[in-house]
Give the backbone structure.
Amino acid sequence: MKLNERIELILQQLSENMFEREHIIALSLLGALSGTNTFLLGAPGTAKSLISRKIAQAFEEPKYFEYLMNRFSTPEEVFGPVSIKALKEDKYTRKIENYLPNADFAFLDEIWKSSPAILNALLTLVNEKIFKNGDEIVHAPLKALVSASNEVPPDNQGLEALYDRFILRLIVEPIKEKDNFLNLISSKPTQVKSSIESNLLVKQDEWKEWQDEIHQITFNTEINNVILMIRKLLADLPEDKKVYVSDRRWQRAAYLLKAAAFFNGRREVLLSEIFLLKYCLWTKLENFEDVSEIVEKSIFNLGIDSGIDTSFFVLEKQRLDQEISTELYYTEDIYETEEIYDGKFYYPYYCEHRRKKLYIKVSGNPHNEFIYAIDSNGNKDRDFQYKTDGSGSYQIFNGYNRNIIFTPKVKYTRGSKKQNINRRLIDALLSEVEEIQKNFIEATEQVKNKYQFLANQFSSLFIAEKDLKFLLNSIEEQINKLEVNIQDCGRLKDLCDN
């Protein structure tokens, strides 16, 4: 049986009658399989402790410890009572059997309500997997710790370091769907004990082997690019929305992505694994949505790596579009003008009743002031005045009628092609457009081929269905944008050839 098939069967059996908890269980199991600590945030009665107990049952003969913390909790209740026999021998040691220092898996409920003495010792145990028991250093077998609370740790209480060790942070909400709620209230209470077949249970030695194998999973270029974009967008958040992610958290989150790929039977992390970062990078409930949006935005913007910097060619296409419009086409209406005595160009105006051609300055006319027109030699015609309001038309006063409106005749309309353009310029622009179009076509083929190959592999035991759908839609949109760019290059080629 393949490893991913085995994990899928385990998840099916763990999730039985766990309505709307399937994804939480999948992520929590991934945490346990990869030695990653998990924090469950949710109101009382949302099955947080049940989830933890079920996860432990996926392992062969697990030593499990569970405790509900409160401000009166003592170290003895968590780390074991002091040995009276050892005290008589002038040694201060604890009897750790059946307590946290000797557990494979542990669940600590309402963890932030505990005393500083417990939390300080817990930090060392979680971080270094060691427990100082008197003069003896005990190597704790703890594979994964699940903690829970109905709140995140309060600020400025010295809890940041411990909170940072919980890489997976999952929000456990009450059941939302009506049918699931009705199924819940009509069924028997969910049994803590899951009857997982013995051949599926995770053994101690194979769990250790997996940790080394997970490190062999690789990141490709597109995964690196998406992670770098997520990191940048987090850094660019406004000061009042900043989300601090430590280097340690990034490292452990990356390991979790590798673990997800490994337990899906792959040797390389794919884009679908990136969605797991939504559950690793947030710090407070208020910034969960911001982090989720950044992760999704990064996946949407980058998509599958085509091996071609298409953003560069988009900019190049825009530059060429501007250059073609400027060099080959009129960017504004060109009016009929004539060059007269001073070498400057004027609008010609033919005065019918005087059978005489006069000239109006193209520019430099004061607004709403009458000035004299001139003849071809520059002489002012005292019987002919005009003024403009800057709209492009002129009010004519010829001594008889003040209401004549003159609008210069358009010779070439805006957007029409220029005449007598150097053919070598056209060929050079056309060649650049064709090169850009060639790169877009190649990028499109690369993305389509990869998508066809990877579409089925994107499916993951640990990714929500809505996230997978978002990914597939994002890639289809990426392909659509590339095809639009190809078509737009065709438009530019037509502009050159017309």
Residues 465-497 form the longest helix (33 residues). Residues 310-323+420-497 form one domain. Residues 343 and 376 are 11 Å apart (CA to CA).
